[in-house]
Each structure stands twice: as C-alpha cells, then as structure tokens.
Write a structure and sequence with these properties.
mainly alpha; two-stranded antiparallel ribbon; 4 helices
C-alpha cells in the first residue's frame, strides 16, 4: 500500500478526504453484506431449507439500548444520535457543511 503524507493536506482537504473514505467504507460494507446474504441463502437452499429455518427467529429478541442521545440535529431538534452505530444522514451532512461534533453535542 502506498503511504500518503497527510501533513501536506489542509484541514479542509483532510475533512473532505475523511468524508470520501467514510462513504467508500459504507459502500463496501453494504456490498459485502449483500454478498454474504446471497451466500447464506445459497447455502441454506443447498440443504433444502430457508435461512429462517436454520437460524430460527426469536420473537423475544430485545434490542440493545444504545444509551442516551449525545448529538442533536440543529435543523430538527427531534432528531438525536447516541454517537454509537451508523452515523445518521443529518449528522454527516452537518459535518460536511463544516460543523464540528462538539457543536452538535447536546449540552
């Protein structure tokens, strides 16, 4: 892998690069998930079963709490994010527009 000298980039350029890397990571993760799902369905089908039959479905599965919201959308205060899990679109947009995470924090 080619080493990139990040010290030559401005803060704005680094932010833009970071955003591009984040988008590419999300794109690739989505692609990998789809490919894995296809392989899982093919494997299940190869033994004459569905994925649900193999994995089972537990109707009592509880969603894990992500905790208290840490960030708030300045354009829509009803939208919050804990800082865990996938970044919401409003958060990414605010960062792209030059806001800092600290500016989006709930005080």
């Amino acid at each position: 892998m080619t080493e990139i000298d990040l010290s030559e980039f401005s803060v704005a350029e680094l932010r833009k690069l970071s955003q591009r890397v984040e988008k590419e990571l999300e794109r690739r993760q989505t692609k990998e998930r789809r490919e894995v799902a296809v392989r899982i369905r093919e494997l299940a089908s190869s033994v004459g079963m569905s994925v649900e039959e193999i994995v089972g479905t537990d109707k009592e599965v509880k969603t894990k709490s992500l905790g208290q919201p840490k960030y708030r959308n300045p354009d829509n205060p009803k939208q919050t994010w804990t800082g865990k899990g996938k970044r919401p679109a409003w958060y990414k947009k605010a960062i792209e527009e030059g806001k800092t995470p600290e500016e989006l924090e709930i005080s």
